[in-house]
From TrEMBL, chain A:
Principal EC category: oxidoreductase
Family: Belongs to the GcvT family.
Domain Aminomethyltransferase C-terminal: 887-968
Residue ranges, annotated region (Disordered): 467-494
GO biological process per UniProt: tetrahydrofolate metabolic process
GO MF entries: sarcosine oxidase activity
Protein name in the entry: Sarcosine oxidase subunit alpha
Location of the SoxA A3 domain: 498-579
Pfam families: Fer2_4, GCV_T, GCV_T_C, Pyr_redox_2, SO_alpha_A3
EC number: 1.5.3.1
Keywords: Oxidoreductase
TrEMBL record, chain B:
Enzyme class, broadest EC rank: oxidoreductase
Family matches, as InterPro entries: TrmE/GcvT-like
Keywords linked to the UniProt accession: Oxidoreductase
Protein name from the UniProt record: Sarcosine oxidase subunit gamma
Gene3D superfamilies in the cross-refs: Heterotetrameric sarcosine oxidase, Probable tRNA modification gtpase trme, domain 1
Tagged with keyword Lyase: no
UniProt GO molecular function: sarcosine oxidase activity
EC number: 1.5.3.1
Taxonomic superkingdom: Bacteria
Organism: Sphingomonas jinjuensis
TrEMBL record, chain C:
EC number(s) stated in the UniProt entry for this protein: 1.5.3.1
Originating organism: Sphingomonas jinjuensis
Coiled coil region boundaries: none
One MF annotation (Gene Ontology) recorded for this entry: sarcosine oxidase activity
Membrane-crossing residue ranges in chain numbering: none
The protein's name: Sarcosine oxidase subunit delta
Pfam families, A to Z: SoxD
Keyword entries, A-Z: Oxidoreductase
Superkingdom of the source species: Bacteria
Broad class of enzyme this protein falls into: oxidoreductase
GO biological process: tetrahydrofolate metabolic process
Phylogenetic classification of the source organism: Bacteria, Pseudomonadati, Pseudomonadota, Alphaproteobacteria, Sphingomonadales
Length: 976, 172, 95
C-alpha cells in the first residue's frame, strides 16, 4: 500500500488496514502504527509548526523524546486531547488528528511571519519588551500574548472516560524493558520475591527491537525477547507495558502511568500505579542528540535512532535518499539497515578516520561514506531537499540532495529517575555524559542510562543489577558500540543569521544561548529560564546537553563545570486523569450522612455542607424560600416544639479513674466537681489561651464522661486529647473512645418538648426536680436504650436523645410523630443558628476566630482560674489577655432595621476609617421582629447602650450596641 | 440494604453481619488480668487477633483490643469487665461502624485500589487500621478473606469506591 | 511519599500519619508559675533544623499513637523512629 512501507516492522498488524484523518485528509495505516509512523509511511513529514517562529516541522524522534509533532487527537465526543506526541499515539480507526500552532493550515501558516521577524524576538524577548507604555499592557500586549501563548487548545467538555489507581508493593521494580531491564527482571525473578517490570513502549524489548541482527544466547533478538517474556510471566513477574514511571518519590514510591486503552468507553482509560518497591532498577536507556547546525529543523531532518525505530518497528522508510550526519559509531548500523531496506544512503562522519571495519561493512551494504565532514546548512521549505556538507563551518561546501537527513550527535543517558530519587549525577569524561552518581535511595541504574555501551555490557549490567551471577548473564554476540560521544555545538559559527536549533519545541537556538551568556546569565538554572531551553513538555530530552555544551563553550568553561539543571517529575507529560484516578465526582471527597439522612431527604430538606457532613439546613414548604422556611421553623421551636438532627456532634467517651482529673486539665472549667448524672458546658482552650472548641460534658459515672464537641472539631479535639494523654500526662489512668458515630442524636426543643418526651420515654422521670436542666438520664424509647441529655442550644427547654445508630430510625420516627402531634416539626441548621444567636450563644469558628478568649465572648465564668493548671491557663495570665479593650461579644441592632452582612466592619461614626471590630453573625429574626447581629467589638461591653456604625457598600449604617442576649435574658424558658 | 454489594467473578463484597463490638483499653502489663476477664487470651502481638468462646480480640494499639462477638453476648461480656479489679476502659461501639466482607481471588486487588498498605504483611488473623481512599478503615484478614469496617457515615463513599475499583478490575 | 516506621505497626505510608511539630518540647513543669519568656519559648520557639530533625508524628489512620521521628530535612529521609517519651540519642536514635 504505502510507498514508504517496507517488509519489516514488529509492531504492526499488516493483515488489517485502518484509517484516520489528519487535518481532514484520510490516512491509512495498520493496527500498531503510531500517528507518526502512519504519516511517514504515506510520505507525510510535515506534522506541526514550531512554537515561537512557526517553522514547519516533522518528527525529530520516534518516541517520548519527540518535541515537534504535537497533535490534537479526537476519538469521539468528549475525547479530545491536545499536545499528544504523534510518535506515541497508536492510531485507531476513525480517529481525528489535527495539527497545532498553525492558521489556517500547516502548509500556509500566517504565524510563520515570526520567523522573518526573528531578529526582533531573541531570548528574553518577553522580559525586554512590552514594558512601555504602561497603559498598553492590559489592552494590547496581554491579549496578544495570550492568543499566541500556549500549546494546542484545551478540551472543552468533561472527560467521559474512567481512570483508576492501584497500590502495589514489590521487592524489585524494574523500570524499562530494554536489554538491561529484561536481564535485570530475569535475574530478579530467579532470585525470588515480587517483581514488577514496566516499560513505556507498546511492547517489551526497547532498543533491542531496533537490533534485529543481534543474537543473544544463540537466539535472534526478536526470539530472545519472546523467550524472556515467557520466562517472566511464568515466574509471576507483573509486566506492565504502555506504562511510564513518571515520578520517583521518597521512600521508593514510584508512580506509574499505565495507558490501558486508547479507546476509553467501558474500559479503564489510564491507571496510576503507586508502587512501593524494596529496590528499583532503573534501565530507561538513553536518548540520541541532534547536531546543532543552521536549519537543522526542517521536516525530514530527524534523529538516526528515530529512523531506525520507524524502520524496525513499523516497517517505514523515512526517505529514499537518506543522508546521515554522525560523529560516532551507532549510526553505521542504522545506515546499513536503511540501505538493506532499499534506501540510497550517504553517511557523513565528522571524524576523519572512523574504525576501518565500519567503513568496510558500509561498503558491502552499498552505503557511501564521506569522512571528515559536517552538515552546515539545509534547504527545502516543507521538507528537506538537500544538505550542505563541509570539512568545517567556514570551509567550502557541497550540496547533497536528500529527502531525509538523519542526525547522530551522540547519546544522552537518561538520568531523570535517578535524579528524581535524590541521586547526584556526575560527569564521565570517557563517555562524555552525565551518569548516575551517588544516591541514598535503594536504587541502581543499569544499561545505557549509566553509560554502558555495548549490548553485551547492557545485558550483563542488568543481570548483575537484578542480583544475577555475572557468569550466567545472557550473552550477546553483537559487540556493536552505541558510540556515545560529546556534542559538538561549534558547528554553528557565531554571528550567522541562520538559526541552528537546540531546543526544537521552544525554538531556542544556539544564538539565543550565546546571547544569554553575553547578557550575564551564568547559572544553568537561570540560563534555562531566561532562554526557556528545556522548559517545554519534552523537558529538554534532546536539548539539555547541547545547550549546556554551547553555554560552557561561550563561557570558556567545561561542561561539568557549568552544571546541569535539576530533573523534576513528571518524567513524561501525564494526564490529569491519571493523577486524579478515582478521585472525582462522588469519590472526590467523602460525603458523610447521618443515620436519619433519608428522613431529611424525604422531608424535602435543603442541605448544607458542614465539613464532609451533609446537614439539613431548612425544610421548605411549597413557595417558601430559606428565610420563610427558617422563620416558620423558628416559630415552631419558640411556640411549640422542634426536632433537630444533631447526630454530627462529636462525641468522646472518657473513661478511667483519672478521667475527671484529665478533663480538668483539658478544659477551662472544672469537671471534677460535676455530679454523676449532671452536665456542664465547657470550653477547650489552646495553650495560647484562645478558644479551641466547646461542648457539653456529661458525667455518666464517677469514672466515665460523655464529652461532646462541635461537629467540625470532633477529630481535632480527639487528636489534642490523645496528644496530652499520651505524651504530656501519660501517667493518668484514662482512655478515650470516639463515639461520634455510635450515637445518633435527636434534639427535641421547645415549650412542648417535655410533653413530647413524656409520651415516648420509658424509665425516666421527666419532672424538673428529677431531671433538671443540664442533667443526663438513661431510658428507653420504642424499646431502644437511649441516653437523654437535658440541654438547650435554643434557649427553650430541650432534650438531646442519643440513640445507638443502628436503631436510630425507629426512635426518630417515633419522636417525629410525637413532635408533629404536638404541633411542631423539623428544623434545620439555619433555624438552629438563629435561635442560638438570639440567646447570644456563640458558635466556635463563627464568633471566635482563633484569637478569642473565654472572657472576650462573655464566658469568663467558664474558666476555673483557681485550678493549678489547665491547657491555656498560663497564657490567660498574660496582661494583654485581660486588656479591657480586647474585642468583646455584643449584639448590634440597626437603626434602619436593615440586615447587615457577616464580616462587615464596625466603626465609630466620628472616625469611620478606623475599624472597631466586625460582625460575626447576622440574621433576620421573627422572634425579635427585626434583624440583629452579633459582633466582636473592641471594648464592646463598655460600649453597651451607645451608638456605632457598620460600614456597608451603601455607606455607614447606624447601630445600637446592646447585650448579646436578646431573647429571654432571665433564662426562664429553659424550664417550661 | 442488600447483603451483596458486588461480585467480580468468584470475588465478592457483601455486608458483614451485625456483631457486638466492645472497645477495651487497658495497660499492656495487665494483659493477663484482662485476658482472664475476657475469658480468653488477648494477643500481646500488635496487629494480631485471638479468639475464644465465640469472641475475637483484635490488638490494634499497644493498650487497645477490639472485642468482636455475637450481638446477644454483648451484655454478658460487658458485665465481665464492669467490676474489674484493674483499671480499664470498656466502651460499646457496636453501632459505630459497618463491615464489608471481601472474599475471592481478587479481594486483595479490590483493597489495593484504595489501600496503601502492603497487604502481604498481614497473615490470617492479622488486623490493622489503615486507609481505604480517604477513609480510615479497619482491616481484618480472616480465613476466607477480608473484613473491612469503617465509620457508618462513610459507607456510601466506601461502597462507591469499592465499586469503582471493581469496575477497573473488570476492565480488560 | 515517606515510608514511616511506626514503632507499633511497622512501615506505613505517610498518608496514614499526621505531623505534629518538633519533638522533645518540654512543657514547663509549673506552667502557671513560669515567666513570660519561658512560656513564650515553649509556645512559639522552634528550631529550623538543616539536617536531622526530631519531630512528632501520630499514626492517625492506624494505632493512633504519637511517636517520634528523626528526619533529615535535607534529604527528606527518615533516619529513625522511637516511641513517645523516649529520649533521642546523640546519633539521632533511641536510647
Amino acid at each position: 500500500m504505502s510507498v514508504f512501507r517496507t517488509a519489516g516492522g514488529d509492531a504492526i498488524d499488516r493483515s488489517r488496514t485502518i484509517s484516520f484523518s489528519f487535518d481532514g485528509t484520510r490516512i491509512e495505516g495498520h493496527p500498531g502504527d503510531t500517528i507518526a509512523s502512519a504519516l511517514l509511511a504515506n510520505g507525510v513529514h510535515l506534522m506541526g509548526r514550531s512554537f515561537k517562529y512557526h517553522r514547519p516541522r516533522g518528527v525529530l524522534g520516534a518516541g517520548t523524546e519527540e518535541p515537534n509533532a504535537l497533535v490534537g487527537v479526537t476519538r469521539g465526543p468528549g475525547r479530545f486531547e491536545p499536545n499528544q506526541r504523534a510518535t506515541l499515539v497508536p492510531i485507531t480507526d476513525g480517529m481525528v488528528v489535527e495539527s497545532q500552532n498553525r492558521s489556517p493550515s500547516l502548509a500556509r501558516d500566517i504565524g510563520a511571519v515570526n520567523d522573518l521577524l526573528s531578529a526582533f524576538i531573541p531570548a528574553g524577548f518577553y522580559y525586554k519588551t512590552f514594558m512601555w507604555p504602561r497603559s498598553f499592557w492590559a489592552k494590547v500586549y496581554e491579549p496578544v500574548i495570550r492568543r499566541a501563548a500556549g500549546l494546542g487548545r484545551p478540551p472543552e467538555v468533561t472527560d467521559p472516560d474512567r481512570y483508576a489507581q492501584r497500590w502495589a508493593h514489590c521487592e524489585t521494580l524494574v523500570v524499562g524493558a530494554g536489554p538491561a531491564g529484561l536481564a535485570a527482571a530475569l535475574a530478579a525473578a530467579d532470585a525470588g520475591g515480587r517483581v514488577i517490570l514496566c516499560d513505556e513502549g507498546e511492547t517489551i524489548g526497547g532498543r533491542l527491537r531496533d537490533m534485529p541482527r543481534a543474537t543473544i544466547d544463540g537466539l535472534t533478538a526478536g526470539k530472545w525477547i519472546v523467550q524472556a517474556r515467557t520466562r517472566l510471566e511464568n515466574a509471576g513477574v507483573r509486566l506492565l507495558t504502555r506504562t511510564t514511571a513518571y515520578h520517583y518519590g521518597i521512600g521508593n514510591l514510584v508512580t506509574l502511568a499505565q495507558r490501558c486503552t486508547d479507546a476509553g468507553g467501558a474500559r479503564t482509560r489510564e491507571r496510576q500505579w503507586m508502587v512501593r518497591a524494596g529496590r528499583v532498577i532503573i534501565a530507561i536507556g538513553s536518548i540520541e542528540r541532534p547536531i546543532v547546525f543552521p536549519n537543522n529543523d526542517r521536516p525530514g531532518v530527524m534523529l538516526a535512532s528515530a529512523a531506525a525505530g520507524f524502520l524496525h518497528r513499523y516497517g517505514v522508510l523515512v526517505g529514499r535518499h537518506i543522508v546521515i550526519a554522525t560523529q560516532h559509531d551507532s549510526a553505521y548500523r542504522t545506515a546499513i539497515d536503511l540501505a538493506g531496506a532499499g534506501a540510497a544512503v550517504t553517511l557523513v562522519d565528522r571524524r576523519a578516520r572512523p574504525a576501518a571495519d565500519l567503513g568496510e561493512a558500509c561498503s558491502a551494504a552499498g552505503v557511501t561514506v564521506i569522512t571528515g565532514h559536517i552538515p552546515i546548512d539545509t534547504r527545502g521549505r516543507l521538507r528537506v531537499s538537500k544538505v550542505a556538507i563541509a570539512p568545517a563551518p567556514d570551509a567550502a561546501h557541497r550540496w547533497l540532495p536528500c529527502d531525509a537527513l538523519l542526525m547522530a550527535g551522540g547519546w544522552t543517558p537518561s538520568v531523570h529517575l535517578h535524579s528524581q530519587s535524590g541521586g547526584k549525577v556526575a560527569w564521565d569524561a570517557q563517555s562524555a555524559a552525565f551518569l548516575p552518581g551517588t544516591t541514598l535511595a535503594a536504587q541502581v541504574s543499569a544499561g545505557t542510562c549509566r553509560g554502558r555501551v555495548t549490548l553485551a555490557d547492557c545485558l550483563a549490567d542488568g543481570w548483575t543489577a537484578g542480583g544475577g551471577n555475572g557468569a550466567s548473564a545472557p550473552a550477546a554476540d553483537d559487540r556493536t558500540d552505541t558510540g556515545m560521544s560529546p556534542a559538538e555545538p561549534d558547528a554553528h559559527p557565531e554571528g550567522a543569521r541562520r538559526k541552528a536549533f537546540v531546543d526544537f519545541q521552544n525554538d531556542v537556538t544556539a544564538k539565543d544561548i550565546r546571547l544569554a551568556v553575553r547578557e550575564g546569565f551564568r547559572s544553568v538554572e537561570h540560563l534555562k529560564r531566561y532562554t526557556t531551553n528545556g522548559m517545554a513538555t519534552d523537558q529538554g530530552r534532546t536539548s539539555n546537553i547541547n545547550a549546556l555544551a554551547i553555554a560552557a563553550q561561550a563561557m570558556g568553561q567545561t561542561i561539568p563545570g557549568t552544571g546541569l539543571t535539576t530533573f523534576r517529575a513528571p518524567y513524561s507529560p501525564t494526564t490529569f486523569g491519571t493523577m486524579t484516578g478515582f478521585t472525582r465526582g462522588r469519590l472526590f471527597d467523602p460525603v458523610r450522612t447521618t443515620p436519619m439522612h433519608a428522613r431529611a431527604v424525604a422531608a424535602g430538606a435543603v442541605f448544607e455542607d458542614v465539613g464532609q457532613w451533609k446537614r439539613a439546613r431548612f425544610f421548605p414548604r411549597p413557595g417558601e424560600d430559606m428565610h420563610a422556611a427558617t422563620a416558620r421553623e423558628c416559630i415552631s421551636v419558640r411556640e411549640a416544639v422542634g426536632l433537630f438532627d444533631a447526630s454530627t456532634l462529636g462525641k468522646i467517651e472518657v473513661v478511667g479513674p483519672d478521667a475527671a482529673a484529665f478533663l480538668d486539665l483539658l478544659y477551662a472549667g472544672r469537671l471534677s466537681t460535676l455530679a454523676v448524672g449532671r452536665c456542664r458546658y465547657a470550653l477547650m482552650l489552646r495553650e495560647d489561651g484562645f478558644i479551641a472548641d466547646d461542648g457539653v460534658i456529661a458525667r455518666l459515672a464517677t469514672d466515665r464522661f460523655h464529652v461532646t464537641t462541635t461537629s467540625g472539631g470532633a477529630a481535632s479535639v480527639l487528636n489534642v486529647m490523645e496528644d496530652f494523654r499520651q505524651t504530656e500526662w501519660p501517667d493518668l489512668r484514662v482512655w478515650l473512645t470516639s463515639t461520634t458515630e455510635q450515637w445518633a442524636v435527636a434534639g427535641v426543643t421547645g415549650p412542648r418538648a417535655r410533653n413530647v418526651l413524656a409520651a415516648l420515654v420509658e424509665g425516666v422521670d421527666l419532672s424538673s426536680d428529677a431531671f433538671p436542666h443540664m442533667a443526663v438520664r438513661q431510658g428507653r424509647i420504642a424499646g431502644v436504650p437511649v441516653r437523654i441529655f437535658r440541654v438547650s442550644f435554643t434557649g427553650e427547654t430541650g432534650y438531646e436523645i442519643n440513640v445507638p445508630a443502628r436503631h436510630a430510625l425507629p426512635v426518630w420516627d417515633a419522636v417525629a410523630a410525637a413532635v408533629a402531634a404536638a404541633g411542631g416539626g423539623l428544623y434545620g441548621t439555619e433555624a438552629a443558628h438563629v435561635l442560638r444567636a438570639e440567646k447570644g450563644y456563640i458558635i466556635v469558628g463563627q464568633e471566635t476566630d482563633g484569637t478569642a478568649t473565654p472572657d472576650d465572648v462573655g464566658l469568663g465564668k467558664m474558666v476555673a482560674a483557681t485550678k493549678p493548671d489547665f491547657v491555656g491557663k498560663r497564657s490567660l495570665m498574660r496582661a494583654a489577655m485581660r486588656d479591657p479593650d480586647r474585642k468583646q461579644l455584643v449584639a448590634l441592632l440597626t437603626a434602619d432595621r436593615s440586615l447587615l452582612d457577616e464580616g462587615t466592619q464596625v466603626v465609630d461614626p466620628a472616625s469611620p476609617r478606623q475599624s472597631l471590630g466586625h460582625v460575626s453573625s447576622t440574621y433576620p429574626s421573627v422572634t425579635l421582629g427585626r434583624p440583629f447581629a452579633l459582633a466582636m467589638v473592641h471594648g464592646g461591653r463598655s460600649l453597651l447602650g451607645t451608638k456605632l456604625a457598620v460600614a456597608t457598600a451603601a455607606g455607614p449604617v447606624a447601630v445600637d450596641v446592646v447585650d448579646p442576649v436578646l431573647y429571654d435574658p432571665s433564662g426562664a424558658r429553659l424550664d417550661v | 440494604m442488600s447483603d451483596l454489594i458486588l461480585t467480580l467473578g468468584d470475588t465478592s463484597a457483601s455486608r458483614a453481619p451485625d456483631e457486638a463490638q466492645l472497645l477495651l483499653h487497658g495497660h499492656p502489663r495487665d494483659r493477663a488480668a484482662l485476658s482472664a476477664l475476657a475469658g480468653f487470651d488477648l494477643s500481646d502481638t500488635m496487629l494480631a487477633s485471638t479468639a475464644g468462646s465465640g469472641w475475637h480480640a483484635l490488638h490494634l494499639s499497644p493498650d487497645e483490643w477490639l472485642l468482636v462477638g455475637p450481638n446477644g453476648g454483648r451484655g454478658d461480656m460487658a458485665a465481665r469487665f464492669a467490676e474489674a479489679p484493674i483499671v480499664l476502659s470498656l466502651v460499646d461501639i457496636s453501632d459505630r461502624s459497618v463491615g464489608i466482607d471481601l472474599t475471592g481471588p481478587l479481594a486483595d486487588d479490590l483493597l489495593a485500589g484504595g489501600c496503601p498498605l502492603d497487604l502481604a504483611t498481614l497473615s490470617p488473623g492479622g488486623c490493622t487500621r489503615t486507609l481505604f481512599g480517604k477513609v480510615t478503615v479497619l482491616l481484618w484478614r480472616r480465613d476466607d478473606g477480608w473484613r473491612m469496617s469503617h465509620a457508618r457515615s462513610y459507607d456510601a463513599y466506601v461502597v462507591d469506591l469499592l465499586c469503582a475499583v471493581a469496575e477497573d478490575l473488570a476492565s480488560p | 511519599m515517606l515510608l514511616i516506621e511506626c514503632p507499633h505497626c511497622g512501615p506505613r505510608a505517610e498518608i496514614e500519619f499526621r505531623y505534629s511539630g518538633e519533638a522533645h518540647m518540654v512543657r514547663p513543669a509549673a506552667a502557671a508559675a513560669c515567666d513570660d519568656a519561658t512560656w513564650a519559648a515553649y509556645l512559639y520557639l522552634r528550631d529550623n533544623v538543616r539536617g536531622e530533625h526530631a519531630e512528632r508524628w501520630r499514626h492517625t489512620h492506624g494505632c493512633g499513637q504519637f511517636f517520634n521521628v528523626v528526619r533529615d530535612t535535607l534529604t527528606d529521609r527518615v533516619v529513625t523512629t522511637y516511641p513517645a517519651g523516649h529520649a533521642r540519642s546523640a546519633a539521632g536514635g533511641e536510647i
